Amino acid sequence: MSSPVHVHFHTIVKIDRRKEDPVYLQIVYQFINAVKRHLLEDGDLLPGSRKIASDLQVHRKTVVAAINELHEQGWVKVLPNIGTFVQNPEQTASQGVKDAFRQPPERAPFHFRKELILDTPHLEVPENYYFTDGTPDYRIIEADELVRFYASMIKRKRKTDQLPETAEGNLFFRDQLSYYLNLTRGFHISRNFLLPIVSREQIFSILTRLLIRMGDIVIIEDLSYFLPNMIFSQAGARLKTVPVDAEGMDIDYIAAHFSPGEIRCVYVNTKCQYPTTAALSEKRKVQLLQLAEHYQFIVIEDDADFETAPIRGKAESLFRKNGGARVLYIGSFGHFFAPGFQMNFLIAPKDLLEEGKKYLNIFGKPNFMLEKTLGEIIHQGDIFRYQRKFQKIVAERKERFAQLLHAYFKQELTFEPPVSGLAFWIRFNRSFSLMRLQQQAKKRGLLLPGVCLYQNKTVTALRLGFAHLDEQDMPEAVRLLYEAYVHVIMESPI
């Protein structure tokens, strides 16, 4: 009979009683990790449960519970009256043992459809410091506080819980959201014209199913947001670009280059054009609405950046001007919350929403408890407190970011702090390779994602998010960017 393995379990299993995980599960997780790291080998005989318990200074029943769990998962083999042996199911599978689990092949042995259109430029692993194309700092509104709202909705019984839950979500949330939008955005809508949907991508997918047929022309801005563009293209739309300047989309260009009845949709972000952050001027808003009526096209207004704008910077939306006759309005709620607590929504004619609801089943049913939680945050007025806190910090970081860019780059670049949104549009005053800049930044521990880079014959620009960087990270990120820029310029001076 073999002897038990000579391993002091306290060296491979560290019990932390401050963790929420039960002690026996901590033992399980770390035991599995030890097997994967070959600190324990397949076939090793384990000491008795009393000895392991003494070594770890836990109750023997805790060790027995851990061994039972490991046995259920296949990481130990228990032979009655003989002992408990280490068993590595991953290693067993790789040796081709009969009935062992096998991983799928790297390349499928059958044909499937591939969509190059849907490839995205996102990078997965950030460096020590990183820029984004404009994301919030989710630490500003602590997730623990949102979780407490969620937990209270589960524990507490309220009259609002008795409101019916429908295919498009519970009525309490839709009532609260319509009240909030009417109050903050000057709308006059009821819940019947409002469809909450978890993600913007789902909204675009539903709209393309409802509106786009193969070959339909969709007008987008010359430089524009890649995600809806991909979804429109994948649906068979022909994307036509329109120039953008300081006043936003050039509406005169549309009138000069297209005929009535030729355009199906115009997609536009009126407050903060992606990526340039330009706002559509009031004059051009009127022009676009008039042209929509004359040319008989639909305007899809993306107002995802509304919550990032200061109160005095909230210009009137196309939807409010038009009343929804030609405008479909896409918005976000709780954009500054942790991702699991965010919501998006579509405002449109009632019959279009009724058809759109049918597609929600494709994406999974709404999270009713999440919607009730968000409704309660509005109902109790906390949303206004969260928004004031978020906007105050964003305003401070925006000002600090502009100061740092001026201090480091001086006359090397041109930018205007955005009124809305969480990113700066930065144009360099000389031409150079942004790919080289990205490489040099990476060498210095700064991630500059491809989604932030914009370069053609006339433009060398970056869209740089600032709101996720706190007072410690922001100066360092800008300094590293400047060092990478200097290296590239000195390497290949113009």
UniProtKB/TrEMBL annotation:
It comes from the Bacteria. Pfam families: Aminotran_1_2, GntR. Residues 21-89 form the HTH gntR-type domain. GO terms for molecular function: transaminase activity. Keywords: Aminotransferase, DNA-binding, Pyridoxal phosphate, Transcription, Transcription regulation, Transferase. Coiled coil: none annotated. In the C-terminal section; belongs to the class-I pyridoxal-phosphate-dependent aminotransferase family. PANTHER family: HTH-TYPE TRANSCRIPTIONAL REGULATORY PROTEIN GABR. This is PLP-dependent aminotransferase family protein. It comes from Sphingobacterium thalpophilum.
